Amino acid sequence: MTAILTNLFDGVAYGMLLFVLACGLAVTLGLMNFVNLAHGAFAMAGGYVCMVLVNRMGWPFFAALPLAFVSSAAIGIALERTLYRHLYTRSHLDQVLFTIGLSFMSVAAVDYIQGSSRVFINLPAALQGQFDLFGVGIGRYRLMIIVICGLLTIGLQMVLAKTRFGSRLRAAVDDPRAASGLGINVPQVFAFTFAFGCGLAGLGGALSAEILGLDPYFPLKFMIYFLIVVTVGGSSSITGPFLASLLLGIGDVAGKYYVPKMGPFVIYTMMIVILIWRPNGLFGRTAAR
Amino acid sequence: MSAASDVGYHAQRQARWHYGEIAFWLIVLACGFVFPSRYLIMTDILRLALFTMSLDLILGYAGIVSLGHAAFFGVGAYAAGLLALHGIVTEPVLALVVAGLAAMVLGFATSFLVIRGVDLTRLMVTLGIALLLEALAERFSNITGGTDGLQGIEMQPIFGEIPFDMFGKAGFFYSLAVLFVLFLFARRVVHSPFGLSLRAIKNNPLRAAAIGIPVNRRLIAIYTLAAFYAGIAGALFTQTTAIASLDVFAFERSADLMLVLVIGGTGYLYGGLIGAVVFRMLQELFSTITPQYWQFWIGLVLVVIVLVGRQRLHRWVLYVPNLIIRQVAGRKAVVAVPESDA
Fold it and tell me: Is A105 close to B121, i.e. CB distance below 8 A?
């Protein structure tokens, strides 16, 4: 029983992490209908920034996290303004080729700068180890991830639903032409959202170094996971991807624990079945308009 | 002239063999005699060309974007490897066909998944299938050899007559023959009414359905055929290198394949062949500059191609040949990128 609960806890932490990593992609892919396979590269950038700050320059871990966010967001906005925005109207094939190219470049560049081996971020002692709660082993680090990601999720939902920016974004996504007719600066809204999504990915990358492992192949290794979250979760709201990430996280952890030999088999099968059953995602309306 | 016969006239004219095409194949054949020390790399290019042609069939003609075409390549590769290793079918040509058929069965089975949904779903499903197969191959390592791959494959002579030699000469001409035969067939297919209906589907599926083309059945047919081609390419890989390992399913293989096709251009079959040559040359060039980081430059090439625009790029490349043709022959250019890309 306790083993089940511990697995559930780990799965939730993993799922939350996936959500933070992938929710930027939910916006670009789901809402802006742009296939961004290079999303993992932004996450990796954040992870490496955090690693350099903590390990080489001795910053405290919690001070480095916001900087991981900021640096990924900065890279994101730079690329959005210079490259990505030319491709919004192109075919999916062009977008796929372009972003695969970017991922390849990021992999080789990080390999060149930091070497190809897996890196670890030195964690403060307070985050290491685990404690028992009614006999359920709870890892401190995973608890922190759940807290941070949970707060972020609530915050995002509030921003989207309650603020002026949220309504602008939703309007821009629903009908860009009508929205710009109403005086909403659509490209700006998209650019800001894109940057914010990249920032979140960067933060997720920094947090995930401990759990998912951080090496130059991160963008290619986890690309499929991000895509699963978005396609399965659909894009009508933030809840869809959130539930999808939790499902994926719990499913993956449980799959690895109970049927270790089947490995990633469970996840891929689940994804294909869901996509065949509901081509527009479990919780969503159509992504392509 | 009525519209129908007009279309037929143009289709027939396009289907005729040009001098350029004959010259192209003669040059390819000549390469086999001119560069006897380069058989291995040239065989590699031929294999890649065949594999790319397979993607061209579904992407360039039917407009299906696939991120997991390596699935069929891998199935073909393992099928050929297992057939040879366990001595089930020892004659290479026969084994090649059997391996291709194995991939074809998989292609037929998965085509039903692929034709559902829009571009994005297709991307995901094709990618998922390739990853699934990779996971399966790793799981059943007692059959596939796991991460070590299949080892100790010994190929029997072709038709029981021509043995594979260590310089790869037999392998090269064998691959060339296979490629040429399959090319002829593909050429016949894409210029047939069936091929024309595929183009109609690519341009506008709804309209194609409205004029009575059974869209889904045509897509299933071409997807299955493309899987057969990819399986043959995979089987050639195993037969000429005598290894099959897990990386035949790798995502990078599918991604590289897209790059090859994009370099060469989609929708005229030669794209795969030209792209394969250019891609391998680029790869050679980059790995002499930076041995470990050639992937960076490959990525850069992709980014630049997309940003410049594939159409424009092909116009630039064809500018000089067309100029020469105009000057020499005094007529309009015959070399052109035939269709808008997917």
Answer: no
